[in-house]
Design a protein that fits this description.
Layout: H1 3-10, H2 12-19, H3 22-29, H4 34-61, H5 65-92, H6 97-101, H7 107-122, H8 125-146, H9 160-167, H10 169-189, H11 192-220
């Protein structure tokens, strides 16, 4: 059991509410209303901008060159890989980069991203990585769980591009590296007393992730 597993075990209820949200189930079976998905795509673009800032903060908070390189790698993955893929998906739904950049952050987006940034600003690198982990690692696990036995069927799936993006090798590698970095930091800094505090951060991040899904779900209903 690695450090991420221990966090997930300590916040099992919050984790399940996040990864098994009705939005996720509807996304997987193709029943998600298009308005819900479009709302989610818009806000997720704004979300990624703030997560890029958090990854930059991770470089600043690092105490070793190894940790700095890890933070820089995550920043590159968000700015040059994930955001570009996200824009490609948005374009298929008639949303331009200009549309995305002119959108306003909804309350759920503000709450989650500012929580993550506050964890990084007021805490250390481990606090920040724990707050980031439900998103970075969770999306990879959700996408893998949504992959059908016959991957070719995703060609006809309305949200096949999203599933393919996050289940694909590029993003899975990002999530694997994030999990390894989290485990290294956990071994270095997580005392038994601190484990409880970190689990509380993880649980709140999962609740905010579920709220983010709910935002899209509500706007599409």
């Amino acid at each position: 059991m690695d450090f991420f597993d221990r966090l997930r075990l300590g916040a099992a209820e919050e984790w399940t509410a996040y990864v098994d949200h009705p939005f996720v189930r509807a996304l997987g079976d193709g029943a998600l209303p298009a308005t819900a998905f479009r709302s989610y795509l818009e806000q997720d673009y704004l979300f990624l901008i703030q997560f890029a800032r958090a990854s930059a903060l991770a470089v600043y908070k690092s105490r070793t060159l190894e940790d700095m390189h890890a933070g820089l790698g995550f920043l590159h993955a968000i700015l040059d890989v994930e955001m570009e893929l996200h824009i490609q998906i948005c374009s298929r739904w008639g949303m331009t980069r200009k549309d995305l950049e002119s959108a306003r952050e909804h309350a759920a987006t503000l709450a989650y991203t500012r929580f993550v940034l506050d964890c990084g600003q007021s805490g250390d690198l481990l606090d920040l990585q724990v707050a980031l982990s439900p998103c970075m690692i969770g999306y990879a696990e959700i996408a893998r769980s949504l992959m059908p036995p016959d991957e070719r069927s995703l060609d006809r799936h309305p949200y096949g591009a999203w599933i393919t993006e996050y289940a694909g090798e590029a993003y899975q590698s990002v999530a694997t590296n994030a999990r390894l970095q989290l485990d290294r930091l956990g071994q270095r800094y997580a005392t038994p007393h601190r484990q409880r505090e970190l689990t509380a951060i993880f649980a709140k991040a999962c609740r905010l992730e579920a709220d983010f899904w709910q935002m899209g779900w509500t706007r599409g209903s």
